[in-house]
Amino acid sequence: MKDVIVVGGGVIGLFCAVRLRKGGARVWLLDSGPEHPTYYTPIASAAAAGMLAPIAEAPSVHEMVALESFALWRSMQAGSEWADGVRFDGAVIVRPTQSDAAAFAANAARLGHKAAHLSGGEFRKRTGFRAKVDQALFVEAEGTADPLRVLTGLAMQAHALGVLRAYDTDASEVTATSVTTHDGRVLEADAVVLAPGAWASEKVMSAAPALKRIRPGKGMVAAVEIERPLGPNVRAGDFYVAQRRDDVVLGSTLEFDRFDRKVDRTKIAELHAAAERLLPGDLRLTDQAWAGIRPMSPDGWPMIGPSAEGVLLAAGHSRDGWLMAPITAEIITAYVFGNEIPATWAALSPERFEHP
Ligand SMILES: Cc1cc2nc3c(=O)[nH]c(=O)nc-3n(C[C@H](O)[C@H](O)[C@H](O)COP(=O)(O)OP(=O)(O)OC[C@H]3O[C@@H](n4cnc5c(N)ncnc54)[C@H](O)[C@@H]3O)c2cc1C
Question: Would the CB of 313 count as within 6 Å of ligand 1?
Fold first, then answer.
């Protein structure tokens, strides 16, 4: 039996721990934070909007892996501990001009997905908003995970499967086969997976220098009130609105190299003003807003696979960690068990950031 230590209990570490355990490994999951995160816990996974949005407006080298991850979300939902935290209601994409909308539709079609043009009336019907919006498209292949609900479900699943979880436990030193905790315990394993988000310490980074390429990307979202429950996500250029299980959020900002999680009300007001321009009177701000720190990689895609030093990295998920969590766990599991790695997965290797 393989022994694996996963460092980091955000969405990435939790998905990896559960998948590795299901694959037959004995798994330790260490996290320096508490067992039950809230929006105000300093991890990206809890603060996120949770949109599962695999289709972008432009082609990308990793787009097929993103679609693969989205398909995994769908196939894993039924019977899972987090099933009621995920919804697949598609998305309404709003673009400023007809040619921008056409470009999005063409890219979706190239990927085998339809992006159907919506008339003003259809936009209102789909969203429940009163605004008259042109250049809107509907794509079916999109969803939303309610972060706190799904994190709780994943933790329950990990517990039920027998993952050995240790919270309030900092991994202070790491090698390819061992972890030393802040209180001096040394754990040994066949493989160590690092999923530290934006929070790797200098010492942890020295075990896998590719982690040094990850920059913090502060992001804020606000809870909003709307008249009728929103079905699909609404994504415009400068804001989005997403209905989760228990609330609706307006997002989001991005500021590089900021680790503080102070909520800047001016920036929230700017976000709301952008939404007001398109959807006047449809969204009311509440007093709830929060910030999280995204782990931003240089190309916006995660690094998944062995570092030069032999530590497995599942890091740098940037703005798409929720979307990419299931496929990250598949890829990490394939590396741990020595299974075949398709070229599209190998392309996400940390190697691309190891040689500047
Ligand atoms: C405002 C906002 C909106 C977002 N919206 C979306 C979205 O709509 N869709 C989407 O797909 N993604 C979204 N994201 C991005 C997504 O949230 C992140 O990419 C993802 O959560 C990263 O997960 P993670 O597990 O790598 O990191 P984190 O969630 O930060 O978790 C890392 C964990 O590692 C632990 N850790 C770190 N170092 C150590 C150590 N040495 N020892 C022990 N534990 C350690 C930390 O305590 C933490 O619990 C958003 C992010 C933000 C902030």
Answer: no
Task: Determine the distance separating the centroid of ligand 1 and the alpha carbon of 295, expressed in angstroms.
Answer: 7
**Does the Cβ of 329 fall within 6 Å of ligand 1?**
no
Task: Identify the pLDDT of residue 41.
Answer: 79
146 CB near ligand 1 (under 6 Å): no
Is the CATH code 3.40.30.10 the one for domain 87-142+215-296?
no
Q: Is the CB of 170 under 6 A from ligand 1?
A: yes
Q: Is 197 in the pocket of ligand 1 (CB under 6 A)?
A: yes
Give 246-296 pLDDT, tens digit per residue: 999 999 999 999 999 899 999 999 999 999 999 999 999 999 999 999 999
Residue 67, pLDDT > 80, answer yes
Residue 39 has pLDDT above 80, yes or no: no
**Domains of the chain, residue spans:** 3-50+147-214+298-353, 87-142+215-296
User: In this predicted model, what pLDDT tens digit does every residue of 85-123 receive, in sequence order?
Assistant: 999 999 999 999 999 999 999 999 999 999 999 999 999
Ligand 1 center–CA 299 separation, angstroms: 17
* 129 CA to centre of ligand 1 in angstroms: 31
pLDDT, residue 356, reads: 64
Structure-token pair, residue 240: 């989005």
Give yes or no for a contact between 145 and 85, defined as CB atoms under 8 angstroms apart.
Answer: yes
For the CA of 321, the closest atom of ligand 1 is 19
ipTM of this predicted structure: 0.99
**What spacing in Å lies between the alpha carbon of 291 and ligand 1's midpoint?**
12
**CATH number for region 3-50+147-214+298-353:** 3.50.50.60
Look over the chain and give the mean of its residue pLDDT values, rounded to a whole number: 96
